[in-house]
Amino acid sequence: MIISMKLRSTRQEIDEVTEQVKRFGYKVHSIEGEERVVIGVVGVGDVTACLESIEAMPQVEKVVRITAPYKFVSKEFRKEKTRIRVNGTVIGGEDFVTIAGPCSVESEEQIMRAAEGVAKAGAKLLRGGAFKPRTSPYDFQGMEEEGLKLLQKAKKATGLAIVTEVMSDRDVEMVAQYADVLQIGARNMQNFMLLKALGKCGRPILLKRGLSSTVKELLMSAEYIVAHGNPDVILCERGIRTFETETRNTCDITAIPVLNQLTHLPVILDPSHATGKRSLVPALSREVHPAPEKAISDGAQSLDVGQFAKMMQELKPYIALWQESRRPAAAVSA
User: Fold this and answer.
1) How many helices (H) and strands (E) does the chain have?
2) Signed CA dihedral, 166, 141, 98, 178: sign only
3) Burial of 48 (0-12, 13-18, 19+ CB in 10 A)
């Protein structure tokens, strides 16, 4: 349920409501504005008794039950869009943010060239995998911590924030020491032990949709992270598996407006994995390699630095239209 406190409620009044909720065995999650506090309540117990008890408290304005199975990430819980600040860049705000980089970190020269190229072209975050989940056990699995160190070196040289994948709950603490954003790949979207660990990592999370997962399942995975203490989750549509064989996956572009209707979390698109073909990427792209013909993994879907710079230039009029479409909404919320 959602508890809306009356305007300018005191800290003592808020604490009294929180303690009353906890007596019924529920957990609380507060959003504190300048004038009003909203308290989210989740858990298992006697909902009706708790709701009636809280409604009777004089400092409470109203109590509303959340009908969606995902509570904290639903728009019922929070009407305003969540904005996540990463290294000075706001994701979910009015700026058009591009994340770019190679599939995996392969060498110092490769990641430095990629970082310098995408930074010059206008990207704000550098993506590169130090740990790589591969279908075959014989494929390149990543440079692990040495790759993380190279990513950090690229950040120091370019100022780009780092996005990299974490595959195990055992590695969360180590990866969080190097990365600005921890990515959860499609294969790990329902790795619930990992999702719980991410709730305590203190870093924003980029959560990719699973290969055969529904929008609801994606939101439920995000709920795991938020419910365990981390509200900074970015959802990523990266294509789903269908009967189509001309592309690596099928880019479910309709999932983006659907997600924006259902959740306050920011949503991004990864067109490289959705298509799997370099020729299709500029219409949708994100993944960049300085020499894709030499890439150890996913070179066929990677733009080179020159192609990425050209794409960024071609995107400018579309970005202007996107920004124009968001201005009325921003004015209303202000």
Assistant:
1) 10, 13
2) positive
3) exposed
Q: Assign 214 a pLDDT band (cuts: 50, 70, 90).
A: very high
Long-range (24+ apart) CB contacts under 8 A made by 276-282 are 276/247, 276/248, 276/249, 276/300, 276/301, 277/247, 277/248, 277/301, 278/302, 278/303, 278/307, 280/247, 281/311, 282/307, 282/310, 282/311, 282/314
Tokens of 167: 């595959």
Q: What are the tens digits of pLDDT across the range 222-252? A: 999 998 889 999 999 998 999 988 888 888 9
**Strand ranges across the sheet with 60-64:** 27-32, 37-42, 2-5, 60-64
State the DSSP code for 56: T
Per-residue model confidence as pLDDT tens digits over 96-117: 899 999 989 999 999 999 999 9
DSSP letter, residue 294: G
How many other C-beta atoms can be found within 10 angstroms of the C-beta atom of residue 21?
A: 23
First-last CA distance in the chain: 26
* Contact (CB, 8 A) for 239 and 275: yes
- pTM of the predicted model as reported, rounded to 2 decimal places: 0.81
The DSSP string of 226-284 is: HHTT---EEEEE--B--S--SSSSB--TTHHHHHHHHBSS-EEE-HHHHH--GGGGGGT
- Please state the separation of Cα 183 from the chain's center in Å: 8
pLDDT, average across residues 282-289: 53
Do 232 and 207 contact (CB within 8 A), yes or no?
Answer: no
The span from the CA of 284 to the CA of 166, in Å, is: 25
